[in-house]
Design a protein that fits this description.
The complex is a heterodimer.
Chain A (H helix, E strand, L loop, with lengths): L1 H33 L5 H5 L2 E2 L2 E2 H31 L8
Antiparallel strand pairs in A: 1-2
Helix pairs in contact in A: 1-3
Chain B lengths: L1 H28 L23 H9 L13 H28 L5 H33 L7 H33 L3 H22 L5 H6 L6 H12 L2 H14 L4 H25 L4 H8 L3 H34 L3 H51 L4 H19 L14 H17 L1 H4 L8 H37 L9 H8 L3 E3 L13 E3 L3 H9 L4 H39 L5 H25 L4 H25 L5 H24 L14 H18 L5 H10 L3
Antiparallel strand pairs in B: 1-2
Helix pairs in contact in B: 1-13, 3-4, 4-5, 5-13, 5-20, 6-13, 6-20, 8-13, 8-17, 9-17, 9-19, 9-20, 10-15, 10-17, 11-12, 12-13, 12-20, 12-21, 12-22, 12-23, 13-14, 13-17, 13-19, 13-20, 13-21, 14-17, 15-22, 17-19, 19-20, 20-21, 22-23, 22-24, 23-24
The chains are: A mainly alpha, B mainly alpha.
Chain lengths: 91, 718
């Protein structure tokens, strides 16, 4: 019985950690996708290598952040699965 | 009209006959491997000799025919293998870069042939080395057998070979064109037939009679390849042909499509993909039925899934027809029948398993076809091969020319076509719609575990971002070209490509003030032209133009495949096997799903012939529906245990009705709108309605059963 309870707590902790990670990453996701368009006029005043920054954020900047976010989440969760003993290391 | 129907059914009949004969022929040439027949000692641990290749490739694609119990992973072997691969890849990259340095001394033809020879040497060298390595390690470890990692690596090698083979084929055709002067239609046919034949061959190799493989590819697709398949599944005719044109027309506002269609994957990886894989059944309605216990939830969600997929597949079929008719000069209708034939061939025989591997191949073809023309255009215009980095120059020129010509509606300035509200609403709809698209979601049933589901989203996003980061470059370069060389010219002396596309009816020139000079306001351009005309703008050969057609076709076919599969599994699995006839035999279910695929394709062809609206419009509507129906109840189903069946059904229907109502009113009377939000972004009203109704109805009815709550808990651990 004690064993089961231990495993229940561990699962709960795992789920909480997962939710925390999701909140943080979704906040970044939201900030990257929805905030630059709000300030696009100010950002467009800055031009780097021909790209007005406001336009660049929509066309490339946010996409690059998305790729990084997804890979980071996959990597972090993979590590967490192992930390909480929910998966074998080799798999 | 009678002639029309006679020809139409005649074509379908001929096509069925051809499929029947070729399937018989191929079954005879490549006999099916029976399960358990594979001899562990001769499992495909060595790539050479290549004969007989057919059973080997089939073994490789179906891991369960390999002796899993014997699998021993040997790190030393793998390290040695990776070392070789790194060395060879370094040489390969050197070959790709070296021509730039040597270009003053050699002509282009020498560089290309030289590079091909080196590529061949590299491949042969690797094959030889891998075979030796295998022998060495087999001596050390008598029971050495292919492991998952090795299987992935071998599959990678096959698809690397496919990629190089495809590139070489294109280069060869291009050489022939220069030396022998092939006509443009023969080049077009050659490229399209070869690519379609390749997909068909993959379909043959992977044909299956097992339900598990037919519906979810046996759940053994490695994460990397599932990522590529998702990318192929995802990037549709709209992404390939129309997206760059939409950017051209809208300027900054068009970026809502770019960000919206990619940002959804971030939501997908965190909120849906791994949990759906943990659940692991056949369809999305399966999950909804199990979570929201009941047949009603299953029927409603399967029905909505079929509507969404059907809308979207119609758009793909329209795309297929446009590509075939424009590049091959065939009748639009014939184009549709030929293109659909290719789709059906795959999904008929192999279901999800065949679709997966063709989508991987189609992903490779479409990414190459998208990147090559604009890279060459960038090379010509700026002297640098990477358009993604260089179109900043194009943007600078656009701004300069706009000022010069007094165009007030600037390309990079925001919100001159839409209100900011519409921009945000559309972006949000597209993101949630991406995460709620049934044909994308089912792809995560095909990987081995939840971890692989997460990683495959990453790989998918990488390939998708490659194309989406390039699309604005297409738009910017052609905008620059048009502002520089088309606007302000006398109408009699426009560049040749403009005249060609004006004759095709996609560019309209209307000299309003009759001064003989073309002003910006006198030019109307169809969004599809931007990608289709780029090879001509850059002065590239007919081969490249045909390559674009092949890429567009790959994009449309891969998406149509995935969508037809969703429709078929809804019919055969959700409606028939789970609701009407629970005792249905696997044979019957396969038969029903094959009939459903055929009928759905036929119906899509009929609708596509009527040509409703432009492609982007159709697709964007499907996104609003997916966002307003599936997305909220799937997310709540995983993250809120209290959500129950009544709530979910009410939520889905309310979301659908709210979206549909706004859409219809806005289509009928565009003047009527809220904050300038257009019908394309109507889902923005459906999403909160769905969330609210689901939550409220759940709160006021009984909580879900303890079994359902236990199911939710089990989903939450990998």
């Amino acid at each position: 019985m004690g064993d089961q309870k231990g495993s229940g707590n561990r699962l709960e902790a795992y789920w909480k950690a997962n939710l925390r990670l999701i909140w943080i990453l979704l906040a970044i996701w939201f900030a990257v996708a929805y905030v630059p368009p709000l300030f696009v006029n100010q950002l467009n005043a800055i031009v780097i290598a021909g790209f007005p920054l406001g336009y660049y954020m929509g066309s490339q900047g946010s996409l690059i952040v998305f790729v990084v976010l997804i890979f980071y989440y996959a990597w972090r969760m993979n590590k967490m699965d192992q930390e909480y003993g929910l998966r074998d290391k080799d798999k | 009209m009678n002639n029309f129907w006679f020809g139409f059914f005649g074509l379908i009949g001929l096509w069925l006959l051809a499929v029947f004969v070729s399937v018989r022929l191929l079954s005879w040439l490549f006999p099916r491997i029976q399960r358990g027949e594979a001899d562990p000692a001769s499992a495909p641990s060595d790539l050479l000799p290549w004969y007989p290749i057919a059973p080997r490739v089939r073994q490789l694609l179906d891991a369960r025919e390999l002796p899993r119990a014997l699998a021993v992973f040997d790190p030393a072997y793998w390290r040695a293998n990776v070392r070789v691969i790194l060395v060879l890849l370094a040489i390969w990259i050197g070959i790709v870069i070296a021509p730039a340095a040597l270009s003053p001394f050699l002509n282009q033809f020498h560089i290309l042939t030289g590079a091909i020879v080196v590529f061949l040497v590299l491949i042969a060298g690797y094959a030889w080395f891998a075979a030796r390595l295998d022998q060495k390690h087999r001596a050390e470890n008598a029971e050495q057998a292919p492991t998952d990692a090795r299987r992935t690596a071998l599959l990678g090698l096959i698809f690397l070979g496919f990629t190089l083979g495809f590139v070489m084929f294109v280069v060869t055709i291009s050489t022939f064109e220069k030396q022998m002067g092939l006509t443009s239609s023969s080049i077009g046919w050659a490229l399209l037939i070869v690519t379609i034949a390749l997909y068909a061959v993959i379909g043959i190799f992977t044909r299956t009679h097992s339900l598990d493989e037919y519906f979810v590819a046996g759940r053994n697709i490695p994460a990397f390849f599932n990522g590529m398949a998702v990318a192929g599944d995802w990037m549709s005719a709209a992404s390939f042909i129309s997206m760059a044109g939409t950017l051209w027309l809208l300027g900054y506002e068009g970026l809502a499509y770019i960000v919206g269609w990619t940002g959804g994957y971030v939501v997908l990886v965190m909120l849906l993909a791994p949990y759906l894989r943990k659940f692991g059944q056949f369809t999305i309605p399966d999950f909804i039925a199990a979570r929201y216990d009941g047949t009603v939830a299953r029927i409603v969600s399967a029905f909505i899934g079929v509507i969404i997929s059907f809308t979207y597949v119609t758009a793909q079929v329209t795309g297929i027809g446009i590509i075939m008719s424009r590049f091959l000069g065939v009748n639009y209708l014939v184009g549709i029948v030929v293109g659909l034939g290719a789709v059906l061939f795959c999904s008929f025989l192999g279901g999800m398993r065949a679709i997966t591997w063709t989508q991987v191949a189609q992903c490779i073809v479409l990414v190459i076809a998208y990147l090559v023309p604009v890279s060459l255009l960038s090379l010509r215009a700026t002297g640098n091969f990477f358009p993604q980095l260089m179109y900043g120059q194009a943007l600078e020129q656009i701004v300069r020319l706009e000022e010069l010509q007094g165009i007030a509606n600037s390309y990079v300035a925001p919100f001159n076509d839409w209100t900011p509200w519409n921009f945000f609403a559309l972006m949000f709809c597209l993101m949630c719609g991406t995460a709620g698209m049934p044909h994308i979601l089912v792809r995560f049933y095909t990987v081995p575990d939840a971890g692989a589901a997460r990683r495959s989203v990453g790989w998918a996003m990488l390939f998708i971002a490659l194309l989406y980061i390039t699309a604005p470059a297409y738009a910017a370069f052609s905008r620059w070209e048009i502002l520089q060389n088309v606007i302000g010219r006398s109408i009699g002396s426009l560049p040749e490509w403009t005249v060609n596309w004006a004759n095709a009816g996609l560019i309209t020139i209307n000299d309003l003030n009759a001064d003989g000079i073309l002003q910006f306001s006198e030019l109307r351009i169809d969004p599809d032209v931007v990608v289709l005309a780029t090879p001509e703008i850059a002065g590239l050969s007919q081969t490249i133009a045909a390559l674009v057609a092949a890429g567009g076709l790959a994009a449309a076919l891969s998406t149509a495949d995935g969508l037809l599969m969703v429709i078929a599994s809804a019919m055969a699995h959700d409606f028939y096997a789970r609701t009407l006839n629970p005792g249905a035999s696997p044979r019957m279910r396969l038969l029903i799903s094959r009939i459903a695929i055929f009928l759905a394709a036929l119906a899509a062809a009929f609708v596509a012939i009527r040509r409703l609206g432009i492609i982007v419009q159709l697709v964007a509507w499907a996104f609003s529906f997916a966002a307003a129906t599936f997305f909220p109840i799937l997310v709540l189903g995983i993250f809120w245990k209290r959500a129950n069946g009544k709530g979910a059904v009410a939520g889905m229907i309310a979301g659908l009705v709210a979206t549909l109502a706004y859409m219809l009113i806005n289509v009928v009377d565009p003047e009527w709108n809220v904050l300038g939000i257009t019908n394309v972004a109507a889902g923005i009203f459906g999403i909160p309605v769905n969330f609210l109704v689901t939550i409220l109805v759940s709160k006021f009815t009984a909580p879900p059963s303890p079994e359902t709550q236990a199911l939710v808990e089990s989903l939450r651990q990998p």
